Amino acid sequence: MKLTFLQQATAALSLFLVSLSGFSTTYSAGIENSRWFLSESVFDCTLTHDVPGFGRAVFRHRAGENLGFYLESDIRLMRPGRGDLVVEAPAWRPGASPRPLGQVHVADDRRPVQLDSPMAMAVVSGLLEGMAPTMTRRAWYSNDDIRVRLSNINFRNSFDNYRTCVTSLLPVNYDQIKRSRIPFGSGSTKLSAGDRQLLDNIIAYVRADSMVDRVFVDGHTDRAGSRIDNRALSEKRANLVTGYLIDKGISEDMIITRAHGDQFPVSNVPSQNRRTTIRLERQGERPEFQRANGDYIQDKG
User: Fold this and answer.
1) At residue 130, what are phi and psi to the nearest 5 degrees?
2) d(CA 235, CA 253)
3) Residue 254: its pLDDT value, please?
């Protein structure tokens, strides 16, 4: 029986795919195109490495956090599951033994591999040693392996600049302080050293981020006293915090100060209700409902 051209092509492609079974595909930058790009600000320091054919490898250090790492790809190449991470010798260093770093979780999204700080630092160490950290996982489309290898070429200088960037990071990031809480003792209107440190961190962030345009300060009490006394006490607590922010350079026009007495308890434990909350709001953040402690009442303003 004579095969058509299409049938012959299909058969040839099938034989080709079978012949590749058990092989691996390695994605890596070569000597001629290995680059590490540093993006730096007081909010984060990011080192990005293009991996041709795969996507990007990224080290990111956000203010207030530790170094992290992730792979990013616009196409699905790795099968979800457990992959292996090893530090290998590059082709120009024959004889050096690979060093396993452990297994990594491969997810089904644009960032299939994300590493915590200790593992990220192990990858950095391998790069600084002139080695090539490599992540291996089965391919999405076959039983072959997909290997993503990081090149150490041009890494050291970029990493030195990254370390300089880290020294200029803010003490906190937006997610960490956009909703903050200062506790008070029974009847107290005093700030502790820890409270002042928290407020100093908030002040440093607000002064650096021009997108923050409103600061809500809400005072609360437990139900130990009368409604009138509690309202006055919550006002003192809120004004205490507001005064501290203004004294340290936050514009009074940015701050909305509110006192709620014992109206909005968050717990049956009285100590958890004696509080002043601080909520930051960026331009464009106007949720329909805002609550007095960050969760409670509708915000009319």
Assistant:
1) 85, 20
2) 18
3) 97
Query: Residue 93, Cβ neighbours under 10 Å: how many?
Result: 13
Mean pLDDT of residues grouped by 10 in the chain (301 residues)?
44 37 83 95 98 97 98 95 94 79 96 97 96 96 94 96 97 97 96 98 97 97 95 98 97 97 95 97 71 41 27
Other Cβ atoms closer than 10 A to 170: 21
Strand 145-149 and strand 24-27: the pairing is parallel
Task: List domains and CATH numbers for the chain.
Answer: 24-166 (2.60.40.2540), 174-282 (3.30.1330.60)
Beta bridge partners of 139: 78
- What's the confidence (pLDDT) of residue 251? 96
Axis crossing angle, helix 155-166 with helix 117-128, rounded to the nearest 10? 140
Distance of alpha carbon 16 from alpha carbon 23, whole angstroms: 12
Contact present, 170 and 205 (Cβ < 8 Å): yes
Which tokens go with 239? 């004004």
Crossing angle (nearest 10°) for helices 227-247 and 193-208: 60
Let me know if 22 is exposed, middle or buried by CB neighbors in 10 A (0-12, 13-18, 19+): exposed
* SS3 readout for 32-90: CCCCEEEEECCCEEEEEEEECCCEEEEEEEECCCCCEEEEECCCCCECCEEEEEEEECC
Structure tokens at 232: 């006055």
Give the CA diameter of the chain: 99
